[in-house]
Request: fold
Amino acid sequence: MVERKAFPLRIAKDVFDAMQRWADDDLRSVNAQIEFVLRDALNRRGRLKPKKEDGNDDGA
Reply:
């Protein structure tokens, strides 16, 4: 299972509202939508380690 890190996020109301609409369109929570967008941006820029084939990302 993926380890999760909780943290507070301050975000402009208009940005949050846009993320809420997008999340609703994609049937996701706002939290999941924010993670999706961040993960996509990190992948596009080569900033995120690729996942292993077996889905086990804990280095074992």
